[in-house]
Amino acid sequence: MKAFKIVTSTCVPLAIDDVDTDQIIPARFLKATTREGFGDNLFRDWRYEADDSLKADFILNNPVYKGEILLTGSNFGCGSSREHAAWAIADFGFRVVISSFFADIFKNNALNNGLLPLTLSSETVTQLLKDCSKNPDLSLTIDLENQVVIRNDTNESFSFEINPYKKLCLMIGYDDLDYLLSQKEKTAAYAETLDEWRILKR
Amino acid sequence: MSKTLFDKIWQKHIVDTIPNGPDVLFIDRHFIHEVTSPQAFDGLRKRSIPVSRPDLTIATADHNVPTINQHLPISETLSRKQVEMLTKNCSEFGVELYGLGHQYQGIVHVIGPELGITLPGLTLVCGDSHTSTHGAFGSIAFGIGTSEVEMVLATQTLLQAKPKQMRISVEGNLNKGVRSKDIILYILAKISASGATGYFVEYAGSAIQSLSMEARMTICNMSIEMGARGGLIAPDETTFDYIKGKEFAPKSEAFDKAVSYWKTLHSDSDAKFDKELVFKAEDIEPMVTYGTNPGMGIKITENVPGSEHLDGSGKENFAKSLKYMGLTEHQAFAGTPINYVFIGSCTNARIEDLREVADLVKGKTKADNVTAYIVPGSRQVRDQAEREGLDKIFTQAGFELREPGCSACLGMNEDKIPKGEYCVSTSNRNFEGRQGPGARTILASPLTAAATALTGKLTDLRTLFV
């Protein structure tokens, strides 16, 4: 996993609440058996017409909005557990998603892929969505170590919360599996204590 | 200290705790399927590590399989390759697979319970958000991403932060024609599609206790639709009776021992929840959704709501949703012509669902305009339906009984609803394009879906009893 420290970038403002993972990557694109290439179909049915031509009115198709930060409405990533949603967003080039809150499974999936799901207050997100829409050059600096977002036009700063363990993992590019593998002896000792009924006999 | 049901199970599964961080949880059952596992197996290969507990790993093919001619090779190339990849991975890593043609094949959340693999007091995970279904047995069951699938394959553990807890009680007697699907759609309409984000939910109250195991599974299944990672119900005699004698459930002495432990699995009377909600069963009527998330539900007798109480982005999102659904504010909803009915999915494709539908449609015929699919949740459900003669009832009524799989719930295979068409569906999500690009999903109970198939328009099933 790529280490995450500081990101400074303009934003893509997607002012939609309850963006579900079926919109982020529709199920018919989940047939691939690798982690790569899902960015091509990110927001497929919002980005493309049925004949594969671009939908002009969708924000990702507007060349004035670009950057590594996806700014979006509340309850982002709800629905299916498909990690392909996080892969698609990261593969497209985003490193941060900002929302007033995230669906739980999506949040874990993002963190496990070095994509930072960053929560700010609903008022702040609404203001940022408005201002970024008006001014596509507005850039933000995300400083993970100090847990702060800085608006580079006004120098306003907003602090954000993140679990200290997850923060450390992101900063050094370490993942849960590395940790769990290092705990194998403890797990083996625990497994010795299982009651008979808990063991599946087939 | 008093504990909730959730606390009791969680605590028993802690292998270790990271200071100021998550717990390492032991996972008792890991269900895998073809769509969210290939990249996880790849990860094991890259690290040259085996599956830690193949005996606790249960594999089936469900999401991306055809629901006709399952005995033939899958015609769609990418789907065939994905299913073959599962077979190859299971064989290479020593995991038993209930693949196409196997007597136990079916939707992961249907086969776990019916085989006695799902039990009270366990932790169960799967790379599928509807893993919450298994919580109906009084277990901690939740969906995970593929990186987490890899972690469980590699170590049989997961790092998880303990969520907040909510109790939702439904008290009293249910009205005629109201099923568990209506209960959960009602709760969703009350608390919204994000009303339980960050929580694990315990369902309680006399109306919940009165439900069969299969009806309880429908409720827990849709916990994720309100944002909850999972939902659970304290096990009771209904639970123990259901489990007893199931294929892989503990037998004789082991079963008795288990039951005496399972009887301790309930929230203590003074247990504290972060949030408590209580609903009255008598307020619940048959429900349908009109919008593009499962929280957008109304009683079938109600008109589509208006946006008067909304402002800003809420109003815009509401308008976007109604536009997608081809509906206008305040219009009557019941009576809307419907050309597609889908009875299936991990929410409502168990034998009780099929029996209810058969009871309603027996001796009747579907409306000419309707295409009605019944997709059983598993091979065992289909076999049982045939033993009971339900297949003949369906055929005579013009319904097509297909082979098991997730099917039109998520439209990964060829079972898709055409653009612009309404589908009254017993599944769990009415997101844009969920059942196919441009498809318009109306979520409902199997009874409402069956009634609609008979009349060809969105129907209050209670009008058929008059």
Task: Annotate the secondary structure layout.
The complex is a heterodimer of chains A (202) and B (466).
Chain A: E1 6-14, H1 21-24, H2 44-47, E2 69-72, H3 84-92, E3 96-99, H4 104-111, E4 116-119, H5 122-134, E5 139-143, E6 148-151, E7 157-159, H6 164-172, H7 176-182, H8 184-191
Parallel strand pairs in A: 1-2, 2-3, 3-4
Antiparallel strand pairs in A: 1-5, 5-6, 6-7
Chain B: H1 5-12, E1 14-17, E2 23-26, E3 29-32, H2 38-47, E4 57-60, H3 77-93, E5 97-98, H4 108-114, E6 123-126, E7 140-143, H5 146-155, E8 157-160, E9 164-171, H6 180-191, E10 199-204, H7 206-209, H8 213-221, E11 230-232, H9 237-243, H10 252-262, E12 275-280, E13 287-289, E14 297-299, H11 312-325, E15 340-343, H12 351-361, E16 371-374, H13 379-387, H14 390-397, E17 400-401, E18 422-425, E19 440-443, H15 446-455
Parallel strand pairs in B: 3-4, 3-6, 4-5, 6-7, 9-10, 9-12, 10-11, 15-16, 15-18, 16-17, 18-19
Antiparallel strand pairs in B: 1-2, 2-8, 13-14
Helix pairs in contact in B: 2-5, 6-8, 12-14, 12-15
Tell me what the structure shows.
The complex is a heterodimer of chains A (202) and B (466). With 202 residues, chain A is an alpha/beta fold. Chain A has a single domain, classed as Aconitase, domain 4 (Alpha-Beta Barrel), CATH 3.20.19.10. Chain A contains eight helices and seven strands. A seven-stranded mixed sheet of chain A has the order 4-3-2-1-5-6-7. Chain A is globular. Chain B is an alpha/beta fold and 466 residues long. Chain B folds into three domains: 156 residues, Aconitase, domain 3 (2-Layer Sandwich), CATH 3.30.499.10; 120 residues, Aconitase, Domain 2, CATH 3.40.1060; 177 residues, Aconitase, domain 3 (2-Layer Sandwich). Chain B is 32% helix and 17% strand. Chain B is built from 15 helices and 19 strands. Chains A and B meet through helix 4, helix 6, helix 7 and helix 8 of A and helix 2, helix 3, helix 5, strand 8 and helix 10 of B.
